[in-house]
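Record now logged underneath.
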Amino acid sequence: NRDAEEVGPIRSARPYFVSKSLEHQAIYVHVGGSEEAYNFIKEEKIDDINEFVDFQPFWRSTDREPPHNLYTSTIKLRKEANKLGYIEMIKKQEYQFEIDRNESLTGRETDSIVIPYNSIYTVSYEYLPESMKYLRFMNGETHIDAKTKEQLAVDNIIIQFAGTKIIDEEGRMAVDFVGKGTGLLFFKGGSTEITWEKPDLRAKTLFLDKKGNRIALTHGNVWIQIVPSDLKIQY
């Protein structure tokens, strides 16, 4: 419910990103994209704002090198969306999970989570009991918010295991978000196994506990890490 003066950096479209915009009925904002992404946007009739076509709402910063320096703002995006005739729909939808400040997890305690995506990219979190938050790292270095200059801190972490495959010589990937799968949930230093399900492209992903009920999270922010189903994480 608040406007953001700076949104970015904005990057090129990929089918798995477009898929998430479809799930949330969002206007998809991007700069160019893969052929598969363009086809997906066209086939599913997704409202999009593309810097290659719609120049007005974007600007380049001087403190970073391209392609990591393209930004916009929510005010500019709304103005462009209105110009393009997109209808801003506000629909009350059920959350994908419950919120309970007193919720706790019965799984094993963990003070760190390591996700080794590949040989050159690892995401990790370290639990800080005093604040009950997880501090985020990339390749062992603190992940700093460019605005606040503070390390990113997370209250709830959902690991969603999904099928992935390489689809071209450039190493681009496809991610299968439709169907059912497994996952992990972390908060307050605890962990538990969960499942997820999504019957079709436009349906919301539901995260479920072992009894088949929507998972309950603690109060605060939520990070969802998409992880290849055959990747072993450490925790």
